[in-house]
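Support request, please re-run this one:
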Amino acid sequence: MTTSNAATETGASAAPESRPSNFLSERIREDLKTNKFEGRVQTRFPPEPNGYLHIGHAKAICLDFGLADEFKGRTNLRFDDTNPEKEDTEYVESIQEDIQWLGFRWDGLFYASDYFDQLYEWAVKLIKDGKAYVDDLTADEIRRHRGTLTEPGKDSPYRNRSAAENLALFERMKAGEFPDGWRVLRAKIDMSSPNLNMRDPVMYRILHAEHHRTGNKWCIYPMYDYAHGQSDSIEKVTHSMCSLEFADHQPIYRWFIEQLGIFPSQQIEFDRLSLTYTLMSKRKLRQLVEQGTVRGWDDPRMPTLSGMRRRGYTPEAIRNFVTAAGVSRTNGIVDLAMLEHFVREDLNKRSLRVMAVLRPLKVVIDNYPENQVEEMDAVNNPEDESAGTRKIPFGRVLYIEQDDFREVPPPKYFRLSPGKEVRLRYGYFITAKSVVKDEKGEVIEVHCTYDPATRGGNAPDGRKVKSTIHWVSAAHAIDAEVRVYENLFTKENLGDLKDGEDALDYLNPNSLEVIAQAKLEPSLANAAPGSRCQFERLGYFCADLDSKPGAPVFNRTVALKDTWARVEKKQGGR
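Re-run finished. Output below.
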């Protein structure tokens, strides 16, 4: 891959909104001013291939790639594949697909496993220099020896082994002589450090597991704190941007680089992206997939980029949202309505308008010629004149939404009811006259009359109606499955759980409604999977991967109601 430029879905250059301006860009600007890295900017995006990327990762991607692009630098994609038990090529492939869909291209593609030999050699050097040792303590014993925030740690009884003994044991670890967890290699730093992470952190653990790239070559694997900084250094990364939970790990990052005397990559921390009603734990998301709560990593209810893509979100909307959410040095939580606002804003510009009825109620226009079919001119997108118009069939029998008729209307109900005249979108004025009910007393058919002089939706005598409703011709409608999604969780802040609580305790049992026989205008019969449109008055929808010719399946991307825009207006925002 070449060039780190962000790009649109069609491959054009990215819009400026994908290049965030923030304290990170100020830091880079200062480093360039002082010629700290000889005028270079090199970033990297280092995901672990143990799951699919989610919306939280989108922030890191936009920063890593966007900032490099802003300063004419380069960005590497490097897979942090040091834990073979949880990693898989499926995740490697999905991550690459998501980054490209989001609109970015990497300059170099690397893996932490590319550096296993070099990392091993550096570990040997640290052992020889008396800065690393093999420890026989169990994981629980190491934890107890580490101490607390108020009490210093206690030296391991194996801390002062000779370099020769440590080298011999480390070589035997590498040769596979010991079972999993039997020994570890630890850095010898400071067991009384106020930073618990500096109290002799583990560098290598024994793990007899097949790696997705190196197979069974290794049975010892480096820990993240050991592998990450050195991998950055090998690639000469100038600005290694991490989320705030790694701030306390920065001293370890610097310590290894300084002890080894290698390229001085620097770590800079920023806030994580957290959303209301949204789970950001890959471990928990995997649990949802494995227990069958969702249909897979790309279930449209999931916060994964693949799930959002399947739901109908656009990469442009996500990039614009990330930019608007901003970057700081303090973690917070962003309203999900803000993301949905940017999705609506983008889809409003690009989506064709179509007619669809999700919960159909039959309407018969008694005075309309029985076998007559007209074609009404419909606007494809009022936001885009170049989108043109299309023809939609109109006949004597139509479907409207059940909610658009009330036999006994409540106060201020302006839609169809007995004796009430309404406008049919692109059609005529109609007036309800009578109803047909089933054995349960439910209205199943409404009989109306129409005014032939109001074709196109305007009355020549100037009379007005207070409501316009959408419809589809019954004779031409196609059946479709429509999936309506709500939040997957009912708790607003899933990062604020009490002791004993689990995020999965707050799963929304009504997060998916499947409407089996919605009625759509005929132009949607062969909608291509991934194609987006607005069902007029109902929301934005996307044709699902399950669609087949003549049997489309649509996912609701987002409803038309925009709560964030109203909040923003109140606050004097954009």
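Confidence is low (pLDDT under 50) at residues 1-20. The first strand starts at residue 42 and ends at 45.
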